[in-house]
Amino acid sequence: MEHTDGRNEILHCGLLGEKLGHSYSPGIHSLLADYEYRLYERTSEELDAFLLEGEWDGLNVTIPYKKRVLPYCAKLSEAAECVGSVNTLVKDSSGNIFGDNTDVYGFSCLLKRLGVNPAGKKALILGNGGASVSVRYVLKSAGADTVVISRSGENNYSNLDRHKDAALLVNTTPVGMYPDNGKQAADLAAFPALEGVLDIIYNPFRTALLLQAEEAGIPFASGLYMLTAQAVKSSQLFLQGKDCQDCDEKDMMEQIESITQILAHNMQNLILVGMPGCGKSAVSKILAKRTGRELLELDQMFETIHGISPAQCILQEGEQAFRRKETQVIREAGKLSGKILSTGGGCVTIPENYPLLHQNGVIIWLEREIKELAQEGRPLSEREDLSVMYERRKPCYERFADLRITNNGSLDEAAGKILSLYEERRFLG
Q1: What is the pLDDT of residues 305-343, one digit of tens each?
Q2: Which listed residue (66, 122, 335, 339) is catalytic?
Q3: Which CATH class is domain 268-424?
Q4: Distance separating alpha carbons of residues 175 and 183, to the nearest angstrom
Q5: Which one is the CATH code of 116-218: 3.90.470.10, 3.40.710.10, 3.40.50.720, 3.40.440.10?
Q6: Which of the four CATH numbers 3.30.2010.30, 3.40.50.10860, 2.60.120.260, 2.40.50.140 does domain 12-101+227-258 have?
Q7: pLDDT tens digits for range 380-421
Q8: Which helix (DSSP H) or strand (DSSP E) does residue 381 occupy?
Q9: Is 280 one of the catalytic residues?
Q10: Distance of alpha carbon 220 from alpha carbon 196, whole angstroms
C-alpha cells in the first residue's frame, strides 16, 4: 500500500484510548483495507510521547482523549472545530497532524438511514457527553430544534413532560449498554408525537429503548450503522491523508451498508424455539458445526446456574417456579452475541422472555408434526395432550418468531433451510 506522498509501506493505524477492552474497530477496518490496525492503550502520561514520536499514520481516538488531542493538531476539519473534539487523526510525512470528527459523519448517515427529516422539529438528545455534542451539531445543521437532557440543569429527566411534542429522540448515554442490558434513560410513552428513535449504542443490537420503539411501531435505528459509517470515513482519511470531501459518496454508502450487514450477521444470535421434541437441540448442533458458533443449550445452562435440571425443577417446585428460573437463564444468555441458542419448549409462554431473546437475536420457530414429537423425559409433555399444548402455544411461537422452519425431513435439511433464509434476509432493524 502506498501513502499519497509516495511512501511505499504498510500504514500503521489503530484505536487510541486509555482502557479499550473489546473493540469492534479492528474487525471493521480489516474489511475496509489492508493497513495494520491495532489497539493502542496509553495512559495520560504516555500520550505526549506516543502522539509526537510513536510509529503511527492514522488513529481513531476514544475516551478520554477526544479533547486532549486537539492541541497536537496542525489543522482541524470544520466538523472538529465546531464540535470541539477529535476522534480521527492523520499524520503526514512531515509529522503534521490533521484532526477530524468522523462521529459527525457517522451520525449524519444514521439520521439519513432513519428516514425522518428533522427540519423544524423538536429533537431530544439524552445525555450531554462528547457524543451528544456531535449529535447536536448534526441535528442543528439539519434544522432541528435541539434540546439536550442531562441529569441536572434546565432540561433534565425529572421534567421530560415539558417535551411531549418531541418528534425525534436520540440516546447518547451508555444507559442500556452491555452488560447493563434492559435499562433505558427514558420511557417513550411520554412522547406521543415521536416520529423516530435513535440509539448510538450498538451492543446490544436492540437496546430496551429501541425494543420499545419497535413495539410501538416507531421508526428506529441502532448505533451499529453509525459505528460502521464513522469507520468508513476514518479509513478514507487514513488512505488519502487528507479531508476526503471528494470521496465518492455512493461508494461509501454501499460500503457502510455492506459492512453493517456483515457485522449484524456475525453479532446476532440464532435462537431456536419450538415444541418439546421438535429437534431444537439436534438442529442447533448442526448449525454450530456449520457456522463455527458456540452452542448454548439453555437447559444445560439452567442446570449449571440453578444446580437442578429443568425436569427435576418442574417435578419438585412446579412449573411456575421453573419459569421464573428459566427467565433468569434467558436474561443472561440473551446478552451474548454471535451464539446458537437452543431454548426450552415453553419459554415463549412468558412474554418477558421475548425482548431478552430478541435484543440480540433472530428467533427461529422449528416446527414438527405433532405425532413426531418426542415426549419421554419431558414432564409437561407427558402429562398433557400435545395437540392441546400446541394450540395453546402456537400464538406465542408466532409472536416470537422471525423465521419459521419445518423439520419433518432430515436434520441437515432443516439446518440448511435456516442458514439459507438467514443469509437471504438481513436483520438490521
Answers
A1: 999 999 999 999 999 999 999 999 999 999 999 999 999
A2: 66
A3: alpha beta
A4: 6
A5: 3.40.50.720
A6: 3.40.50.10860
A7: 666 778 899 999 999 999 999 999 999 999 999 999 999 999
A8: helix 379-383
A9: no
A10: 6
